Each structure stands twice: as structure tokens, then as C-alpha cells.
Sequence to fold (341 residues):
Amino acid sequence: MEVEKIRSKLEEEFIVYDVEKLEDGTRFYLHPKGEISKDLKIFLTQLAREYSVEFKERYGELILEIREAKSERVWINIVLLIATFLSTTFMGSVMFGLMDGILFSLAVMFVLGSHEMGHYFAARRWKMRTSLPYFIPFPTIIGTLGAIIKHKGPIPNRRALFDVGVAGPLVGIVASIIVILIGLSLPFKPAQIGETMIILGSPPLLDLLAKIVGYEEQFIHPMVFAGWVGLFVTFLNLIPVGQLDGGHIMRAMIGRRAEIVSRMMPMVLITVGFAISYIYKVSDSIWIFWGLITLFFAMYPHPEPVDDETPLDLRRLLLGIFTFFLALMCFTPVPFQVVKT
Fold:
């Protein structure tokens, strides 16, 4: 780390009144001379590609810490991957039997993993520091709460924000389509029908795929269910609120005005939920619940990219509109119902 070069750059816009050597880096104590320029933000963004760069305010002091980037503990990712495979296989086996449960588990892991790897490779393309996916095992109906990646450091510009935000849903949709088409080609009949049955609402994209292949059976293969999960998760992620994927995309497309959309979306979802409850005669629409959940996402403003002024090009704007159209193709008013047979 070239400490003197960094200090010289900082002194263009700060009074650097102390420098402290750390075990793994350097801490600069600063007093700003004015607004931080775009040039300095870009410099720090480039620095964040190799180091951990963090501004702090402590006891009224402005502090910049630049530390050596810690190596990823990949073993955690591997342990969570294995644990999630076991939990999804267990839940799949309970619903469909062991062999079909394994196929369901592999399909779900492929769909969710593809979504996160889309984010990962897009971030790496922009030289942003990001982790490998962390899968989350949990005893839900599918055995997991999905997967996440952790991004570290600033967002260079709106194009980078858009590319990273849009890559996950688009790759996830492609993975879901592949899994659904494979599942629709496989015969399936449940070994036995219990006292209760889950009826899935079919989104337009799934209806279209079934029509293309001429599928008219009553029951669907577990792999189709895994693809349905992918479409459902994609729609949830593409709701333009907070730091969901849809929030990232909208923020990149329209800038700070996205905060208005983000604050409105929870009420839109709650209103849609009540309308669906009335029209479809269901008492507990999931969209009311999800509207309440997104209230928390909307409370926190989206972090600004370093270059927040340069707008997106036309190609990205059109891709963003197309992505939100795909989200609507993944929407179903009543995703699932539990009925007694």
C-alpha cells in the first residue's frame, strides 16, 4: 500500500491531521475542506478493488481506514451448500419420495445458485469485490430460504449497479425455464395423495411453456415445481423496492427518483393483496404479508453509486423494461392454496 501517494491524494480535499499505522492497513484522520469531488470518489473506488476502504465518524472525527482485504473463508460457503442440499433433499423426499426428492433438490439448487452466480459474475466483470453465494438451509416447504452474496465496497456507477442487479433475475429465469422444460418432459404421478394437497397458481410464463410443449397432465414433476419456485422468487426479487434486485434496477434506471417508487410499492402490494382477497375469495393473500415485509426494505435509502450522474444507455434501459415485463410473466395472484382432498 502506497501510503504517501494516498495521503497526497487525500490532502487535495482534506486536512490530514494524523496517520495511524494498523496491523493490516492505515487509518487517516481527516477534516474536509469542502464537498468530496467525483475524482476522489473514483480514486477510492479503484482502491476498493484491492483493499477494504471504509469511512467512519467517531467522536466527531472523520476517519478513513484502508486495510488489506481479508481472504474469503470458502469453507463456510461449502458447508452451507452441503447443508442446504441435505435440507432441500429431505423436504423433497417428504413430498415426492427419495429419488424425485433428489431431483427436486438438484433443480432448486441449480435455479437459486444460477441467480446468485449471475450477480457474482456481473460484479466481477466490474471488478467489484463480492463473495461466493451463501446458501441458507431452513425448514421451509422447499428446505431453504435461498442464497445471498455479500458485496463489499462502493458501487462504481449506475451501469455497474444495473448490470449486477439485472444479471441475477435474468440468469435465474433462464435456469428456471431449463428446469421447467426438463420437468415437463418427464412423466410423474404421485405415489399416493394425502389428506391435503397444495395447488400451485400458474404464472403466465409457466402456462406459455406448458402450451409450447403441449403439457396437459394434472400433476407436475418435482422439477417443474423447482422451476416454479424460481419464477416465484424472481418476481419477489424484482419488486422495485429498497435493495431488492428490482430496487437496484429501478435505482440505476431513474436515479434518486427510485426512492419515490420504493416508498409507494409496499402500499401498492397491500392494496393488490386486498383486491385479490376480494376477487379470488381468499382470506390471507400473501401479497398483503409481502407488502408489510417490504415496508422494512423501503425504510432504508439505496446507497448512491460513485458516479450517480451518468445515465444508462438506451440498450440497458430497454433491457430494464423487458426485465420488469418478465417479472409480470412470473406473477400469479394466488401462488398456492392448501386444500383437503
The chain has two domains: 3-68, 74-340. The longest strand covers residues 14-21. The two ends are 68 Å apart (CA to CA).
